[in-house]
Amino acid sequence: MPFWKCFYHAVWATANREPIITSAVETIIIATIQHKSHDLNCRIWAINSIADHIHIAVSIPPKLSPAEWIRNVKGLSTHEVNGTFPDLPSAFKWQTAYGLLTFGEKALPFVTAYIQNQKQHHAEGRIQPYLEQTDEP
Prior knowledge:
The chain is of the alpha+beta class. It is built from five helices and four strands. It starts with 6 loop residues before the first strand and ends in a 5-residue tail after the last helix.
């Protein structure tokens, strides 16, 4: 197996930024993304969401493109949420766009802390706009 260290910060939002990620929905999303990532040999360093978007710090092996990982976890988490909560006011969907940043291992503590404290950052208005972007300005 080749040596690799590839770190990504991924962020994407619900369709139309609908604030539908409740704590119950978040539990399903996180468990599904962690499970699928494990199956794809990806390591989740941090994962957290607020009502309308999710952040993930992940290491993805070079044999898998980040776009393919995102497609897999977005698709499966959508399927699982809709299967678990068929009575949501509208079907759960992610937006098609996403934000993806690379970072070095030295930045891992900063990125994981930022993700772990998402709810606090948003509640206090202390977000880092470049870490929240999900599409081109």
